[in-house]
Amino acid sequence: MENFKLTEQDRATLQYKVTNKLRELILKGEFRMGERLMQEEWAQKLGVSRMPLREALRQLEVEGLVKIEPRRGAVVTPISTEDIEEIYQLRALLEGQAVVKSLPYLGDEEIRELENLYNAMIKLKADENDVEVFMKLNAEFHRILRESCPWRRIQGFIETLWKGIPPYTPSLLSNHLADSHEEHRLMLEYVKQKDEVRLRRITEKHILRTKENLVEMMNKK
Q1: Which stretch, 12-16, 160-164, 188-192, has highest mean pLDDT?
Q2: CB neighbours of residue 201 within 10 Å
Q3: How many CA atoms lie within 13 A of 78 on its CB side?
Q4: What's the whole-number mean pLDDT along residues 33-41?
Q5: CB 62 within 8 A of CB 20
Q6: Is the pLDDT of residue 117 over 90?
Q7: Which fold has domain 9-76?
Q8: Measured at the alpha carbon of residue 73, what is the angle toward residues 70 and 77, in degrees to the nearest 5?
Q9: Are the C-beta atoms of residues 95 and 158 closer than 8 Å to each other?
Q10: Where do the domains of the chain lie?
Q11: Residue 126: its pLDDT value, please?
Q12: DSSP letters for 135-198
């Protein structure tokens, strides 16, 4: 396995960077199902202390990529491309419906919030620090789009699907931020126009494109 050691300059946001690196390696199939991630070994490989590594493993457990077991430590439980297909297909279906049901309730205040988030996102660069900010802005943008949907069950299903990989996808696909910017611009435009057909269509396209890019990344060895 290659040398993954982080440079001194990289260590400004250690936990974030360690989490990203391990997440990427797990999704690309660098570990076997059930393989242990030894803290001391990986702290040495990445050139960090064990503290950010422990925090990274806790985050990966929340995402379902590792399981922290008594006496064994962190054990890899990788998500497959089939899992990604399922998560993102369901997200496209449910969020496409949710934004349509939410649209009549999105007023001037919500549109201003969406505009502010969009403008903040397009100012960001594709480096690691800005991608971390983008992830938070992106999640908030999608939350506002769907939060006024009166169907509580669909909201619950979507929240479940967002737990794990989806919020962190931008950190894996930072070279596709330009595509996301354009899709967000169109979402905002269709909200302003109250065009539910095109809003549903671009929301579904946005999610399914992300799925395809993520599967492509996972299949590259």
Answers
A1: 188-192
A2: 14
A3: 20
A4: 91
A5: no
A6: yes
A7: Arc Repressor Mutant, subunit A (1.10.10)
A8: 105
A9: yes
A10: 9-76, 81-219
A11: 65
A12: HHHHHHHHHHHHTT-S-HHHHHHHHHHHSSSGGGHHHH-GGGHHHHHHHHHHHHHHHHHT-HHH
pTM of the model: 0.79
Residue type, 28: K
Positive or negative, the CA dihedral 198, 204, 210, 212 is negative
Which whole-number Å values give the CA distances from 207 to 13, 39, 51, 178, 201, in the listed order? 28, 34, 34, 14, 10
CA 188, 193, 196, 200: dihedral to nearest 10 degrees?
Answer: -30
DSSP calls for 57-104:
HHHHHHTTSEEEETTTEEEE-PPPHHHHHHHHHHHHHHHHHHHHHHGG
86-112 pLDDT, tens per residue?
999 999 999 999 999 999 999 999 999
Single-letter amino acid, residue 35: E
Same topology, domains 9-76 and 81-219? Answer is no
Pick the CATH number of 81-219 from 1.20.5.170, 2.60.40.3200, 1.20.120.530, 3.40.50.10490: 1.20.120.530
Helix (H) or strand (E) holding 41: helix 39-46
36 in helix, strand or coil? strand
Take residue 56 and report the two structure tokens written for it: 């990274």
β-bridge partners, 74 = 37, 68
**Phi, psi for residue 97 in degrees, rounded to 5:** -70, -40
CA-CA distance, 139 to 121, in Å (whole number)? 11
